[in-house]
Amino acid sequence: MKIKPFGVEEWMNKYEMEAVYNIAETCVDSLTVEELLELSGEKEKILKDITSMRVTYGNIHGHPQLKELISSLYESVKPENILTSTGGISANFLALFTLVEPGHRVVSVAPTYQQLYSLPEAFGACVKLLELQPENNFLPDMEELERLCRDGVDLIILNNPNNPTGALIDRALMENIAELARQKGAWILCDEAYRGLEHKEEDKVPSMVDIYEKAVVTGSMSKVFSLAGLRLGWVAGPSDFIRECALRRDYTTISCGQIDEALALVALKNKEKILARNLSIVRESVEIVDSWVKSEERIKWVRPKAGTTGFLFYDYAKPSEEFCIDLFRTNGTFLVPGKCFDRENWLRIGYAYGKETLKKGLEGLSSYLRELEEANVGRVTLL
């Protein structure tokens, strides 16, 4: 099986550890274990429970109480309709491994997390990309989606909220997409890793699994709950899908780690406290970036509505990978080049991993832009 290199992950692996100002990170400022336990108000009890735990396999399909708490994040999902996984990336893999057969017709939004369209391609599917455009606020265009599905479709892949753009598909558009899938008899897979981080309360959206009967969604503890180090995610969907998914999961995962699940339980029991913390960070941070963008004549963006990432357009005639490497070597500021999303002259910024790092990173980026201007680097046009 041939598979394309995973652009974003290879980029992060190569440079992230040496970054001085990491404004590529996509998690909300990560919690320490002590911070998590302090939030719970039961620190000593939880520590005693964990230290007395036998380090053996956990519940094969996920801790029952954990699945109960995960199901509470949805309107209609029961605990038995959830499978846990080692992170959201494994949840996406399991979902695609279950839904995609060679020759299947798949339509995926782009730009998005590359796994969502490169894996189906590697599994032998015919993949068409629904290109999201800034003039449409990086939202799916229904006419274009209908055109791509005209000759039939087996799976439509969404990412809501979107990474890298921060675009948010509202309920009305979600229902339109679901109706098209229903007419075609297609499944929908929606990566919802950032769901819950809507920047305005009135913009909160339901899960696709609560809208469409043949929807499968994935989530994790990484982004919304600031616990990427737990490596714990999940997939939720209809009973027949979960049964098939469990058969395939046996080949990739015996169980998730018991300590990971125990700490995830603590987080979900205290989700309101964590969400209040994280929404405050996200909302303040996006304002910082928006003010910076307005101060930079040659930088544009569609302001994100959710999540922790934004997509910055720059009009300097310099390829995005070269731009980011040069910036990194100049002052240690670290961004993700648009090349990783097949979009030149774009940069992905992650703005929720620490206010001071964000401010210093934006200062470093501004300083680098001044250098490009002094060097008379030419302009390109946003098409």
From TrEMBL:
EC class (word): transferase
Entry GO MF terms: pyridoxal phosphate binding; transaminase activity
Superkingdom of the organism of origin: Bacteria
The entry's keywords: Aminotransferase, Transferase
Names of required cofactors: pyridoxal 5'-phosphate
Pfam families in UniProt: Aminotran_1_2
Boundaries of every Aminotransferase class I/classII large domain copy: 49-363
EC code(s) of this entry: 2.6.1.-
Protein family according to the UniProt entry: Belongs to the class-I pyridoxal-phosphate-dependent aminotransferase family.
Protein's recorded name: Aminotransferase
